[in-house]
Amino acid sequence: MTSTDREPRSDVAAGAAPRPDVAAGAAPAPNPHATAEEVEAARHDTKLAQVLYHDWEAETYDDKWSISYDQRCIDYARGRFDAIVPDELQRELPYDRALELGCGTGFFLLNLVQSGVARRGSVTDLSPGMVKVAVRNGQGLGLDIDGKVADAEGIPYDDDTFDLVVGHAVLHHIPDVELSLREVVRVLKPGGRFVFAGEPTTTGNVYARNLSTLTWRVATTVTKLPGLESWRRPQEELDESSRAAALEAIVDLHTFEPAELERMATNAGAVEVRTASEEFTAAMLGWPIRTFEASVPPGRLGWGWAKFAFKSWTSLSWVDSNLWRHVVPKGWFYNVMVTGVKPS
Fold first, then answer.
1. Distance between CA 245 and CA 258 in Å, rounded?
2. pTM, entire model
3. With b meaning 16 or more CB within 10 Å and e meaning fewer, what string describes 25-37?
């Protein structure tokens, strides 16, 4: 599928960050593949919740987040890598073997492989459903990809196995982040690098949730007015969206300060640790846009809106990268990335 036959929906900007409209406060929706007892147990077992929720999302996740494996998302994934690994440190590309931790549908690693960052890779996730989709996506692209169901706090590979470990919007799902980073360092070869992107900052998460909650309330109120009924999704769909968002709140465990991520990576044994952040004004626009899109019937906004939303986000991202990053504290941006190296 090419970039021309997908709407460039603005929600690609958000990565896989928390759904801010959880403020609706509804109860989690049942996983169609889980029993009622399992869903109730998930409220008290975060790893079970991760499995149930991500299995539930697996087959529709790419559509939900406007994920593709064409040039649009290849450029997006490579852009995250380039933003945290400067050109002068990329002379060894491509890495021979890479691992994606918490792979979801494989968005980050598959697009990085296509961009020339790595030759082959392995995908892991706590969710069997996600691993299945990620491997299928890799095979469909003709890539050398294998997959395992795996806990990020106990990665099932030998020491010194990988040249590169990556992850996108995964660390905030892991109960013990520092333990997971120790595992990452263990499975890396000496001199190997890890890159984690798309993690929500503490400050960014506050304004994203508040802006999106306000947008959700205004949109669902205004569309009740006479003459605007066609702009309102059926109530059962709105309720389902709120319930899904509430379940996301169970599996989203952390937000981060950049200095905190650097400390954890250093404590895990990494050297050359650094962080970078992105999306400031882009996030302030992107989250309300995404929330508004979720409040109206699918297809109601049309191609013109999609182009406006995507171009607005890319323009503001440019302003953030070229202006605000020189003025605004790193922790005020929405997304934070971290990289480090295993000592040689």
1. 26
2. 0.86
3. ebebbbbeebeee
| Residue 323 DSSP one-character state | T
Distance from chain centroid for Cα 63 = 13
Q: What are the angstrom distances between the C-alpha of 103 and each of 30, 75, 146?
A: 23, 18, 12
Residues forming a β-bridge with 251:
none
Q: Which residues pair with 147 in a beta bridge?
A: 123
Give alpha helix (H) positions in 223-272: 235-251, 258-267
Between CA 208 and CA 214 the distance in angstroms is 10
**pLDDT tens across 183-218, in order?**
999 999 999 999 999 999 999 999 999 999 999 999
Break the chain into its structural domains and give their ranges.
3-206+239-341
- Report phi then psi at 180, rounded to 5: -65, -40
Name the architecture of domain 3-206+239-341.
3-Layer(aba) Sandwich (3.40)
Instruction: Please write the tens of the pLDDT for every residue from 139-170.
Output: 999 999 999 999 999 999 999 999 999 999 99
